[in-house]
Amino acid sequence: MLIAVIALNLSLALYGFYLTWQMRNLRRTFSQAADALILAEQNTHNLLSGAPEGIERRELTVRQLRQNYRQLQPKLQQAQKAMALLGMGRSMFLSPKLPQRLRKSATKRMNR
After folding, report:
1. What is the average per-residue pLDDT within 64-92?
2. Which residue pairs from 95-99 have beta carbons closer than 8 angstroms and sit at least 24 positions apart in sequence?
3. What does each C-alpha distance from 12 to 26, 30, 40, 50, 59 come to in angstroms?
4. Is residue 77 predicted with pLDDT exceeding 70?
5. Burial letters for 76-105: b for 16+ Cβ neighbours within 10 Å, e otherwise?
6. Contact 93, 103 (CB under 8 A)
7. What DSSP element (H or E) covers 44?
8. Residue of 109 and 70 predicted with greater confidence
C-alpha cells in the first residue's frame, strides 16, 4: 500500500512538472506575441502619425482645385462654343458644295 501511495505521489508530481513546463512554454509564446504586437503598433503609429495633417492639406488643395474648376467652367464652355462655331465655319468654307464665287468673296473679305 505504501508503494502504491509513493507511486501515485510521484506520478502526480511528474504531472505537475509537466503542466508547469507547458505553462512556461505558453507564457513564452504569449510574451513573444505581445512583443510583436507592440512593435507593430509602434510602427503603425510612426507611419500614420502625420496622416491627419496630410489628409487635411490634401482636402484643402482639392477644395481649391474644385473652386478653380467651377470658375473656369463657363470660360471652357465659351471656348467650346467658339471652337464649334469655327469648325462649322471652316467646314462650310471648305465644303465642295459652296459655290466658287462665294468662296472668292469670303477670301477677299478676309484679306482686307
Report:
1. 93
2. none
3. 21, 27, 42, 58, 68
4. yes
5. eeeeeeeeeeeeeeeeeeeeeeeeeeeeee
6. yes
7. helix 2-48
8. 70
What radius of gyration do the chain's Cα atoms show?
Answer: 43
For the chain, percent of residues with pLDDT exceeding 90: 76
Whether the CB-CB separation of 22 and 14 falls below 8 Å is answered with no
Task: Say what the pTM is.
Answer: 0.48
Q: Which cell numbers hold the place of 44?
A: 503603425
d(CA 100, CA 91): 14
Q: Would you state the cell numbers that stand for residue 43, as one nine-digit string?
A: 510602427
DSSP state of 32: H
What is the distance between the terminal CA atoms of the chain, rounded to a whole angstrom?
Answer: 134
